[in-house]
Amino acid sequence: xxxxxxxxxxxxxxxxxxxxxxxxxxxxxxxxxxxxxxxxxxxxxxxxxxxxxxxxxxxxxxxxxxxxxxxxxxxxxxxxxxxxxxxxxxxxxxxxxxxxxxxxxxxxxxxxxxxxxxxxxxxxxxxxxxxxxxxxxxxxxxxxxxxxxxxxxxxxxxxxxxxxxxxxxxxxxxxxxxxxxxxxxxxxxxxxxxxxxxxxxxxxxxxxxxxxxxxxxxxxxxxxxx
Length: 226
What we know:
Low-confidence stretches: none
Radius of gyration: 16 Å
CATH topology: Glycerol uptake facilitator protein
Distance between the termini: 36 Å
Shape: globular
CATH architecture: Up-down Bundle
Number of domains: 1
Number of strands: 0
């Protein structure tokens, strides 16, 4: 269970500090983007040697499609990641409720993902799906590329992946809040409920579709160094 525990802790950390920056930090788009990216970099160098630091079912799915994981390993990773995200969101909610002036999760939220009128920039479903699909595909491509046996990225792989996540958030926060990670989308939605839960399907389908695309390209050898 060492790998699964590492994935649980890593995803817990990503959700607590990434979504926490949005809920507790008051740091704006750039601050939230940096929080997600820096959290990922931190856990990449701490649990990377143990589990590979996927902390994202879409990444694990891309690894499975590319032949780097078995189906059983993918399922175990995904379960651990989703549980870590849910617990991370629960701890964030617990901290937020400690605000002396009161905290209304229904109005403030927990950094959940979504789309439509009244959410962030007010983008529609087509824009949300397009962004999540493309962003996840590119994100997983970067991960598969820099973690390949002949990539040459070495110790800077975690930095490259984390900075990629920062850029994705800077571009996409106003579109969907940025998921590119089904577990990250699930955790806050469980406690916010309502529209966050009803829109959750998009963040699963788009992310897994993007990961599938990246995984197939990897399987075909597109990311192999000459």
